[in-house]
Amino acid sequence: MARSKGRTGRPWRRIWKRLRDSPGSEVCWLCGEPIDKTLPATHRESWTADHVDPISLGGAPRDPRLLRPAHRHCNSSRGNRLGSRGRALPTSEDW
User: Fold this and answer.
1) Model's pTM, two decimal places?
2) CATH value at residue 49
3) Which of 13, 42, 49, 63 has the greatest number of CB atoms lying within 10 Å of its CB?
4) For bias kind Low complexity, which ranges apply (predicted)?
């Protein structure tokens, strides 16, 4: 698969927009803090779509059920550690 790994083109933009516009997408799933969607994409606090199961470990790049909203720096800090399967990620609240 190409370097983009399925994260380009119209299908990806539709999935990305659907997640960004969905209720609850203004809170980072990793840290629990609000995300300012007006920030430019390069800002560390900007909104990104995080893959729960990293693509580098076999995650599906365009499966909307495996995408969660995250701050850019939270997404980058997590790296390719597993989310839904594997070890639990820290949260700011007790669920």
Assistant:
1) 0.70
2) 1.10.30
3) 49
4) 76-87
